[in-house]
Amino acid sequence: MNEWHVSEQLIADFARSPGAIDEVTAASIEQHLTVCGRCQSGLAAAAPEAPIDAIWAEVEDRIDRAGGGVTERLLQRLAVDSAPARLIAATPALRVGTLLAVGVITVAVVWASRAAQVGGAYLALAPVVPTLLVALSFAPGTDPAGECGLATPAFGFGLLMRRALAIELVTLMVLGVGSLLVPISGLDALGWLLPALALSMGTLAGATRWPAPEVAGILIAAWMGALTVVNIVEPGRQVADSAVFAPAGQFVIGLLAAGACVVVARNRPSILQEAGP
Amino acid sequence: MSATVRVRGLRKQFGSTVAVDDLDLDLTVGLTGLLGPNGAGKSTLMRMLATVAAPDEGEISVFGHDPATPAGRLEIRRRLGYQPQEPGFHQQFNCFQFVDYVAILKEWTNRRERHDEVRRVLGLVGLSDVSNRRISRLSGGMRRRLAIAQVLLGDPDLLILDEPTAGLDPEQRLRFRELLGSAAAHATILLSTHQTDDVAALCARVVVILDGRIRFDGSPAELAGMATGRVWMADGRDPQARLAWVGGDGRWRNIGDPPANMVVDAPTIEDGYLVLAGDAGAATRADP
Questions:
Q1: Which of chain A's residues have a Cβ under 8 Å away from the Cβ of B84?
Q2: Whole-prediction pTM value?
Q3: In this structure, what are the phi and psi dihedrals at residue B165, rounded to the nearest 5 degrees?
């Protein structure tokens, strides 16, 4: 029979803060507790309830947090709080299928550019991809909670805009990797970036007043029209060498992108209040 | 008692179809049942009250706020629980994630409090045991209960429920009645359903909408009274009956204008509704 028992004071200290007791004593108490019912009861009586509730709540919380998708876990690792992480991760356009499609399109255009030994196709088509995805973020009926989500205070233009910016950021990174592989040297390979920002931010700015898909369609048509006009005015010149991608052209496009950003920023307070159908 | 919801001259049209036509309605605290056939305009009315669709004409006031303004919509949505007819779940969410997602959209920013609330509402609808199951693996009844769970988040002051009991088994429907009965003590609830026994069991007031217009507004007893003297039992289908069906005992329940000297039966709320719908249909057919 085991005659030795942990003293009341020691078991109270152990219950309150096991780490404060030296390792040898703590290990000895732990070993004893596995076989002594009397000391187990003493420990149960001495254990403060509040920390147990807190520990249990933390366990529940960790269980509940588990199971978020890859995007959600990645955002949380980047110190994004759980609520905005879940809202952004629920962006329909951020689903694996859409991202795979972006990757496949990028690879296809890169391959075509390398095969033809001209990078112009990449510079012309890359800005269209994020613009289409921004428009897709505003498509009706795409919220993961359907109409249950529409009738909530947080649903509105502000949420859609944050989702659009998230998908734009991801798309620009994919396209950035693609630009390393096209047959254009140096920074000229990033000639698509400012047009992409101008078109996608222009779509966001226009969406504060008109339906985003229509705005995107008009801007993409204008972009293709501008390239066609430049091609007619400068016959025989490669797209990558045209005025659109020259410093002056890029400056003008940069100004347009900045203007679109200003429109979005200036409309932001009213946008965040917007919660409408 | 002042009205929580006040609707005047509401009209909504889809192409050439008028879904809701010059509709007036006041709702106060308590449970109001909304009856009507498919396509009568119930869901369209509920979508407009829930701020997810805008009327073509007319005025809506909810808690004194105008849903036509962004600020008004925001205030209404903060006190609203809405279950649409087709919830449209993201299939990759599990139960907990879905309700948690809606809770985030309902501005529950504190994670611990939000998770406690999510667990509470999942428990209320009996889904605690499957909280980690993906929505794609839930039965139809479980999905209905999940949609009800998100409505209950934060005990909203206004509940708009579009056919919430469709697909629920009898035990779940009784549990649902218990939930709604207790919520109706402090909240305004508009319940659309085809289950007339749910209306009879729960609602102090019932509204019947036909062809986009309100055709009846009163108590369930008054609706049943619409069929007084127009329901009779017989051994076969009576040629004078507008509607008739045979029961489990082999007797036919006939509704219409009974033959002379026929002993009439006590009407139910379903009889009253069928008489009302039949009269409205006959009036429509007679109208050139």
A1: 146-148, 151
A2: 0.79
A3: -95, 0
